[in-house]
Design a protein that fits this description.
Blueprint (H helix, E strand, L loop, with lengths): L13 E5 L3 H13 L3 E5 L2 H11 L3 E5 L7 H11 L4 E5 L4 H9 L4 E4 L4 H19 L5 E4 L2 E4 L4 E4 L2 E3 L3 H11 L6 E2 H9 L7 H15 L4 E4 L3 E4 L3
Parallel strand pairs: 1-2, 1-3, 3-4, 4-5
Antiparallel strand pairs: 6-7, 7-8, 8-9, 10-12, 11-12
């Protein structure tokens, strides 16, 4: 695996780029390396899962259409072994496909063709979110029968632990900071995803659905046209 020298004595962030279109993969890798990241490439599903296991990336840029098995299955397998932020790339414009990607653990998505500048901005935003979450003070938050351990990044409801992706955990933790308060989708995008884009509200909706599926449909209340609130009981 190619290694890039750390910048300024610090360890470079590792990014795994997975795309079977070699021109796109190399272009993305070159741009990310120019930003100071260490980058590893994979071009099919099995190779991507194997590379994630060995390389232990800080973030994965993942195409949805891959030989071997597709990016959705790659995302499932990677997240099952080691939760990591995933930026999914798709040539499909169907909203259902995008929501499926978010539902299996992707944190964000871009539709091809995309700007390398936009991709880089999304990568930086996802990594800032992870760094911010890691820097938060260790604390136990209890809301009704929900227990959130920020230090271990673990969640229980009714004494039963739920396995959340990194972004699902951050979204839940943000809602739990103000139980019953309604937080707008746009505000959640700014504070959890670290970027504001009205089109991205679908990403919020998709991750809320995932939290309800894992923790119970009654946990998060929808305020139509506004946003969401964490309920306590």
């Amino acid at each position: 695996m190619e290694q890039k020298a750390p910048v300024g004595g610090a360890t470079a962030r590792r990014i795994l780029v997975v795309d079977d279109e070699l021109t796109i993969a190399e272009s993305v890798a070159a741009r990310l390396r120019a930003e100071g990241f260490t980058v590893e490439l994979a071009h099919d599903g099995p190779a991507a899962v194997a590379a994630a296991r060995i390389f232990e990336p800080d973030l994965v840029v993942l195409d949805i259409m891959l030989p071997g098995f597709d990016g959705l299955e790659v995302c499932r397998r990677i997240q099952a072994e080691r939760p990591v932020p995933v930026l999914m790339l798709t040539a499909r414009t169907d909203e259902t496909d995008q929501l499926i990607g978010l539902g299996v653990g992707a944190d964000d998505y871009l539709t091809k063709p995309f700007s390398l500048r936009v991709l880089t901005a999304r990568v930086h935003a996802l990594l800032r979110r992870v760094e911010r979450a890691a820097g938060q003070n260790a604390a136990i938050t209890v809301v009704g029968d929900l227990r959130i351990d920020a230090d271990q990044r673990r969640v229980w409801r009714g004494g039963v632990e739920a396995q959340l992706t990194p972004l699902e955990f951050d979204l839940l933790a943000r809602l739990a900071q103000r139980p019953r308060a309604v937080l707008a989708r746009e505000r959640l995008l700014e504070e959890v995803w670290d970027w504001a884009d009205a089109a991205g509200t679908r990403a919020v909706d998709s991750h809320i659905k995932a939290l309800r599926r894992k923790l119970g449909a009654d946990l998060i209340r929808t305020v139509h046209g506004v946003g969401y609130a964490l309920e306590s009981r």
